[in-house]
Hints:
With 384 residues, the protein is α+β, with helices and mostly antiparallel strands. The protein has helices at residues 12-18, 43-70, 83-91, 124-138, 148-159, 176-191, 230-233, 264-272, 290-293, and strands spanning 2-5, 37-41, 98-104, 112-117, 168-172, 196-200, 205-207, 212-214, 223-226, 250-252, 282-283, 295-299, 309-311, 318-319, 331-335, 346-354, 357-366, 376-378, 380-382.
Amino acid sequence: MQRVTLRQREGWQQTVEAQGLLFHTHEDGRPYWKEGVAYQFAPAQIETLESATAALQALCLQAVEHVLAQRRFREFGIPDFMIPVIEASWEQDEVSLVGRFDLAYEGQGPPKLLEYNADTPTSLLEAAVVQWFWLQDLLPHRDQFNSLHERLVAAWQRAKGFLPIAPVAFLHQDAEEDIQTVAYLRDTADKAGVTSLQMFIEDLGWDEARSLFVDLDGHPISAAFKLYPWEFMVKDAFGQHLAQLPRPCTFLEPPWKMLLSNKAILALLWELNPGHENLLPAYLDGPRELAGSGYAQKPLLGREGANVSLHRPGQPTLSAPLQPAYGAEGYVFQGLAPIPCLDGHYPVLGSWVVDGEPAGMGIRESEEPITGNSSAFVPHFILS
């Protein structure tokens, strides 16, 4: 695993924009898409990452079964009215379309799980499409850990078996990254023969007389993909309607993913699998023995590194920007991960899962050990 310098493609900004990546540069001029650098891997390293991803996915599914069997919803802050919905979606084996494990990996030894972005993962367009075309332009004789597009189309084909026979509403907030990510996912659904429409999440309403979710024109919405967190949905004005049985709308990601998108899962995974090579020690009641060796403190429902702090022996505490939306639900205390520093950058490997199977990788790098909203996306390739 190395960070290498390559040539920049002429007119690369227009190239990636044509592929849907309109947010390739931050407002302050810093690049989000890193052109001219890449991470290279040996085939054996990719096999290690893929195997670790499959193992972590299996552990997560076992953890969901444990929570359901032992009724441990309180540790996740799950509202009581959502528990029957979670149970029903799990029992019906509703398709989990996509998720992303964030891993720390030095190129040798086992990858370590930092967190599981199981509900609303982004950087999908970059991983599935933009870096693939980058590879074809610069290194067509090389390979890439990337079967995301094909697997997404196949996942939608399987999802058709339980989705209502109606257009799927693709819901998102009014942000460029969300709009383009959802547009790409909608394209994969279209290739699977799924009819759809796209709309802002705030335009989703509730028709009290008919007990239905509706769009602005009053048309029923009975199936939806949402790039909007479950924990926000249950607190919204229509949140209680999510628990109506039979459910008025089938959502992707399914409700059972609420358990995996919550960082309390990190502590439960360690409790159930202490010492597992792909896990870091993690606790909900404090750092315990980690206080001496160092730990990361993470809000259970935080995103993009918000409110994360690193407590390193003999060093000042490193803290990410605070956001009032996160932290009130509690924190998880996790052992420090061996994130390498390559050329002054700290890469976190996002290993994707589609319909439960490893599907590809995208890399975000930062100049600090906390990956945040401004961290850059860097493509990768495999030496052969």
